[in-house]
Write the structure tokens for this entry.
Amino acid sequence: MKRVTGIGGVFFKAKDPVALRAWYKTHLGVDVQAWGGAVFDWTDANGQPVAGATAWTISADNGKEYAPSTSSFMINYRVADLDALLVALRDEGCHVVEVGEPSEFGKFAWVMDPEGNKVELWEPVPGQ
């Protein structure tokens, strides 16, 4: 079974998210949008668009979206078959924290790694 197929998003906290977003926009050219993040569309080796994108956001450091982790970041990994992967992870003794309801974006679940980092798993809707 194929497990992770790519990175769907990188999310991290900041003491001053507005200033940090501005720094990334000014100095690294990240196209930070009003919602607090950016989307990097995928391309092939020739620069042609392909299905898929990677989200990037900075949030306030007092948010609880990464709980029960106390880390300042969370990585979203794209997966091919979330249901099968969750069965395998549970069988392997991994701590699955939560399974989300399917949404317009696909299916999500969260697992804790051995260092206490919350990991987001995402099975996008077909064609995304």
About this structure: Residues 4-42+49-124 form a domain with the 2,3-Dihydroxybiphenyl 1,2-Dioxygenase; domain 1 fold (CATH 3.10.180.10). The CA atoms of residues 78 and 122 lie 5 Å apart. The chain has one domain: 4-42+49-124. The chain has a mean pLDDT of 93.
